[in-house]
Design brief:
The complex is a heterodimer.
Chain A (H helix, E strand, L loop, with lengths): L1 H9 L2 H24 L20 H11 L3 H20 L1 H7 L4 H34 L5 E2 L5 E2 L1 H32 L3 H19 L30 H27 L5
Antiparallel strand pairs in A: 1-2
Chain B lengths: L2 H14 L2 E3 L2 E3 L5 E12 L2 E12 L3 E5 L6 H8 L7 E6 L2 E3 L3 H4 L3 E4 L11 H11 L13 H7 L15 H12 L6 E5 L7 H16 L3 E6 L2 H7 L2 E6 L2 E7 H6 L4 E6 L2 H12 L4 E3 L8 E3 L6 H10 L4 E7 L3 H9 L7
Classes of the chains: A mainly alpha, B alpha/beta.
């Protein structure tokens, strides 16, 4: 079932397009930096952007940290929002359920397959960044944010570390998308609900008065990935991110479970 | 037979054996594959399905008839566990729905409210996906169905690898049927299976259903195309506005309808008058105006052979005499009213 669901997700045009978009971000970022250099005052809040021209390994890192606010949540919301809503719209949900698949099992399989999709998408982005970075920029020993120097291989491993922290940070978005998908029969509606919630939480996260609620905001620990490039690596924020993600996953999957197991399938 | 087995048998016959009511044996040893008691589904104030009792005997081809919006599809969805009833009970194969769905559904093939396909998947991939997802509900030896055979059976083998969105509605309908036939099924539930099919397809579908029934499947088929049901079904149920108006053998539905004798003679006018003189005004339902018309006689008042004898003895030529049975359509309209209320 899991393999069938993976095959279903990966062998469709939308998935290819989303991978293309994510890969293009790494590529474009590389070309822009290679053409125009770092630019004055470069990077803004992103500590890695300045580093790209010194070491190609930072291209993948920058691409992920740039994309994590909007494009990655969007791509994942779109994919996860389809989970049940698209099946309902096609009329295939009723045929799956009478084939039969238990509703709980279908939920679990969809959640696993979409989490795998999120993993693959972010790793793909990191890999494109790594390759383009190695072609356009010098590679060699990597200077960490703490000022120490580690080997290139260490740097590459840390790039994938950043990618995995990012995957962790979007696990709740997979849950959100699936939850939204059980609430409506429109895939685009579900994706909008899911992405809308992510954006609202990001906005709330930036309102100073709500600082006490910050640990609840999805995007609050997105910057935890920066800590991977410290020396030694700081795990405390990653751990907090993990707790936050587990909390959001518990809520979203509980709602999804309650909804899908009791829903009248009239589509 | 050991004592224990005797005990079990008699207990069994107490539960499901024949029952003597007013000197008639009813129930017999036939099992009802689907049984619904007081099945109701309400949305807000309105009851879409209103206390329906269904009994679908094993081995029957059971026609489930009703105008559009009469609650047929909602009933079918409840039987398949897609919708939970507001009240009432359902059992399939004697097992409670929805509690025992996972043991019941692998033995049931269904087409529900038309095809539901993935536009970008080919028919072959569609069936593969359905089989893959349901594999853990089946015994190990039934997990890899013969997809090519299922496609060939419904005549889709030539388009097996084409994208589903390129298929015509009739072809999609066939693919849906192939999905229902992917595994050996004891029960097939077909909701309007010939929707969108061409006449050729409808004939093939009828043949297929007859074949499946002769292979031992029980078939529950909903439709509003009555001529289709009439040629197929052994049993029918008629629903309207969520209420069950009739359930039973097709023959007994027909028997409720008045039959008539159509007579054509060398002089219809005089024969009609003659019959009226003999048997009172009631038997001749219709006195024709010109010679080519037909006289209709109520067989409940005068038997056909008596009519024939009277006509011939009086010296008229009898061209034609046949007793006409009401069509299912007439029976249906008399049950549901001539106007079709859709809402």
């Amino acid at each position: 079932m899991y393999i069938e669901e993976l095959r279903f997700i990966f062998f469709r045009r939308r998935t290819a397009i989303s991978f293309f978009v994510l890969g293009a971000i790494s590529l474009l970022l590389g070309i822009v930096v290679a053409t125009f250099g770092n630019g004055r005052g470069g990077g803004g809040g992103n500590p890695f952007l300045d580093q790209i021209s010194h070491n190609g390994v930072f291209l993948g890192v920058s691409a992920i940290t740039t994309a994590q606010i909007v494009i990655i949540p969007l791509v994942i919301s779109v994919a996860a929002g389809e989970a049940f809503a698209q099946e309902a719209a096609y009329g295939t949900l009723r045929y799956l359920l009478i084939s039969p698949v238990s509703r709980v099992r279908l939920l679990i399989v969809k959640a696993l397959a979409l989490s795998t999709y999120a993993l693959a998408a972010v790793l793909f982005m990191a890999t494109v960044g790594l390759i383009v970075g190695a072609i356009l920029f010098p590679v060699g020993n990597v200077t960490t944010l703490s000022g120490t120097t580690v080997s290139y291989l260490d740097g590459v491993l840390r790039l994938y570390g950043v990618a995995l922290v990012e995957v962790l940070s979007v696990m709740s978005i997979v849950g959100l998308g699936i939850m939204a998908s059980t609430l409506t029969d429109s895939a685009i509606g579900a994706a909008s609900i899911s992405f809308g919630i992510v954006v609202i939480l990001e906005i709330l996260n930036n309102i100073p008065q709500l600082v006490h609620f910050a640990p609840l905001m999805l995007s609050n620990y997105f910057s935890a990935s920066n800590d991977i490039f410290r020396s030694p690596i700081v795990y405390s924020n990653v751990l907090k991110d993990l707790y936050e993600q587990l909390g959001w996953m518990a809520v979203t999957y509980l709602v999804s479970w309650a909804r899908i197991t009791t829903k009248d399938i009239t589509s | 037979m050991t004592l224990l087995e005797v005990g079990i048998c008699s207990a069994g016959s107490l539960l499901s054996g024949p029952v003597l009511v007013n000197g008639t044996l009813i129930g017999g040893d036939e099992l009802n594959l689907i049984e619904c008691r007081g099945l109701t589904k309400s949305y807000g104030e309105s009851n879409v399905v209103n206390g329906i009792d269904l009994e679908v005997p094993e081995g029957s081809i059971y026609g489930f008839l009703g105008p559009n919006g009469s609650g047929k599809t909602t009933t079918i969805r409840m039987i398949l566990g897609l919708i939970s009833p507001t009240s009432g009970e359902i059992s399939v194969f004697g097992e409670e729905i929805p509690k025992r769905l996972e043991s019941v559904l692998p033995r049931v093939g269904a087409v529900v409210e038309g095809p539901g396909l993935y536009p970008s998947l080919s028919p072959r991939r569609y069936l593969e996906r359905m089989a893959n997802h349901s594999r853990y509900s089946r015994p190990k030896d039934q997990r890899n169905p013969d997809i090519s055979a299922a496609l060939a059976r419904v005549g889709l083998d030539k388009v097996a690898d084409r994208r589903s969105k390129a298929l015509s509605l009739g072809m999609k309908q066939r693919l849906s049927l192939a999905n229902a036939l992917l595994f050996p099924r004891q029960l097939l539930i077909l909701d309007e299976p010939t929707n969108g099919m061409d006449p050729q397809g409808i004939v093939e579908m009828r043949q297929l259903i007859t074949d499946l029934a002769s292979e031992g499947s029980t078939i529950f088929i909903s439709s509003h195309i009555l001529s289709e049901i009439e040629q197929l079904c052994s049993h029918v149920a008629v629903v309207q506005h969520g209420n069950l108006l009739f359930q039973g053998e097709l023959e007994s539905l027909r028997a409720q309808m008045p039959t008539r004798i159509n007579v054509r003679t060398s002089d219809n006018q005089r024969v009609a008058r003659l019959l009226q003189e003999r048997f009172g005004p009631s038997p001749t339902l219709d006195i024709p105006n010109d010679a080519s018309d037909v006289i209709q006689v109520d067989p409940a008042v005068v038997a056909p052979e008596v009519v024939a004898k009277v006509i011939i003895d009086s010296g008229f030529d009898l061209y034609e005499l046949h007793q006409e049975r009401p069509t299912l359509e007439e029976a249906f309209v008399s049950l549901t009213g001539a106007r079709s209320d859709v809402y």
